[in-house]
Amino acid sequence: MADITAVISQSIEKLRSNMPLVHCITNYVTVNDVANALLAIGASPIMADDIREVSDITAISSALVINIGTLNERTVQSMLEAGKTANKNNIPVVLDPVGAGASQFRNYTVKELLKEVQINVIRGNLSEVSYIAGLKVNTKGVDTALADSCNNPMEMALMAANKYNCTVGITGAVDVVTDGNRVVQISNGVTYLSKVTGTGCMTTALVGAFMGAGVDSLTATIAGICSMGIAGEISYEKYNDIGTGTFHMGIIDALSRLNTDTYIKRAKLNEKES
Amino acid sequence: MADITAVISQSIEKLRSNMPLVHCITNYVTVNDVANALLAIGASPIMADDIREVSDITAISSALVINIGTLNERTVQSMLEAGKTANKNNIPVVLDPVGAGASQFRNYTVKELLKEVQINVIRGNLSEVSYIAGLKVNTKGVDTALADSCNNPMEMALMAANKYNCTVGITGAVDVVTDGNRVVQISNGVTYLSKVTGTGCMTTALVGAFMGAGVDSLTATIAGICSMGIAGEISYEKYNDIGTGTFHMGIIDALSRLNTDTYIKRAKLNEKES
Amino acid sequence: MADITAVISQSIEKLRSNMPLVHCITNYVTVNDVANALLAIGASPIMADDIREVSDITAISSALVINIGTLNERTVQSMLEAGKTANKNNIPVVLDPVGAGASQFRNYTVKELLKEVQINVIRGNLSEVSYIAGLKVNTKGVDTALADSCNNPMEMALMAANKYNCTVGITGAVDVVTDGNRVVQISNGVTYLSKVTGTGCMTTALVGAFMGAGVDSLTATIAGICSMGIAGEISYEKYNDIGTGTFHMGIIDALSRLNTDTYIKRAKLNEKES
Questions:
Q1: A62-89: pLDDT as tens digits
Q2: Which of A244, B253, C155, C221 matches a 20 to 30 Å C-alpha distance to C118?
Q3: CATH number for the domain harbouring residue C10
Q4: Hey, are the CB atoms on C196 and A250 less than 8 Å from each other?
Q5: CB–CB contact C257 B243 (8 Å)
Q6: If you measure CA to CA, which chain A residue comes closest to C104?
């Protein structure tokens, strides 16, 4: 995977010099981390969710990130509106279907978004993407532990990618990314990442940052997921079991210090026959 | 208090092995800390506040935590709906009446919640619980400093517990927990805890985590409050006066490392004649 | 500037002994930092944005801080209502026009607020204040980098101050504060401050804290801006390039330790001919 590693390691320089503006309609649980992760990686975040302004904001942005973590009727309308504006202006759209499968409202929202908006990348955990791929799942909050043992991530990712003609990234013990054609596994990360809320949301936003810098969707999704995995490794190597608060801070630190060399040294990528 | 200490020290193991899903309808000021505190103690947080999904989410959860810190008309309806679903499904409900007494809207909301929903635990400061107990108070924000000198916490806790047939925990310099029958004082904690926003909200969520793991309400309330007090002590002993930012991080660290021994060594419980 | 330095260095003691309650209607991205910054500097934060309670909450507060970072139709009405209540009760109002110029909805909201409410202090970056001063700008999110090179901060601050009869603080590489008459430049701060979201929002809230302690608007604005700059310097001197997560934590630490001496030693103020 020397080629992909080379490509993603170059993407970080592209991102840092472009400083793309990334419009996020995201949940209020992890929004601060999402903004700080975007700043750390070199992007410029803007959060706006009122229907009276989402089109204006999307139109001046380089990418749109939609995260349904704490959706409500008002913001769902804004997500649809922003998504359509993004499509009209060829601005890439990244979707994080947080908790898909856990409530009818989330299921309905995900369906509407996928119907009304051409999504470029879906980044979720196995249970969320399995729901999107058309299977019934039993989502336990935003937790990946149980779901991970149920289905086959590679199969689910391919199914969703082909169904919606987009790139799909499933994060878990081993992450899988596919554009429906090529399939890449990422083995970076530490289990401690699941003990901090928002590592998934931040990962999705990072994908948006890379896409906003003009990186293609497969590379951007690999780069975003790999960045979070590496940041987790660096933080854990530094702080071990001091606790999840320090580890959390260390993730942002590591993101703010990523450079070409970091990816070359640490990225664990593996292309599979799809 | 060897018996209660033993019981709460065992509860942490129960909690960590059960990983209960805790549904929080909570304020946007401290929601990230609440989620991270729940993960740190071993629970799994899910935040959802739209009326179209709160019933679905509560129904798959092991506990419901309602916090009125930044309530609005929309979320109040969701709180009522979620509370009723919890009651129907025998899912425990914990209420944090943030700022009760400070506005008519908060007072109205607290009254509605207590009328429409059987609350299992109320966790607040002295001024908030005094309002609930039926007394007029002068709430200064979410601050406990002034109110602490006005009324008698034990009297207020008993009054509220008997009035609403629930367990009540009042946090302050010395915390008081009662189920209307037994009364336990907790002397853990450091004054620095009042210099970080959200320590109260996190405490309430921790109570919900213990209840979600099947711990009875008196024990769960003691365990939740005691956990935050101990976490504050550990963080302060480690970092002293470095500043409230580091102290804040240290609280989450300490929560993520609590175990049976921590409670046995540190819990300062004192049962009173009620 | 020995006199102004002396005045602001005394203000911190006044603030810490007064512990003013500061009502914030603010964005959900940085609200936790805003609350913790207020606690760190010695104030008491209360966040409330429902129209059914904002008047009650403002009326018991010592200052009102309005931040339009993630405004929506509901909260804009609450901002107007709270602002009017503040005016009626002679409670100072501080406005952070986040992203003014970036969408028609933000522009409309800023105009409404400035028309319906007497604002005491506007604290923004150059592009936001330039919009307010009546010039067309090209706001890129909440970023100051590009805008800083376009217009003259001193000119813009004076124009806005005279137009709305208030004090204006523009933060950037060098900050400018004016009440329309006196003009003071502040040279504290480090570039790293722009890599953490919310340093602007926190600065605005700190201005509100000083005003809530009875400090006049020119001094309060200088003190608030200078406090954040100094906190950034202290954190950066301590942690250098460890990363933006640690730097972020260090800002709150430093705010919680500010005292009279800190300002005397570090404040870099320069009064200009206006």
A1: 999 999 999 999 999 999 999 999 999 9
A2: C155
A3: 3.40.1190.20
A4: no
A5: yes
A6: A53
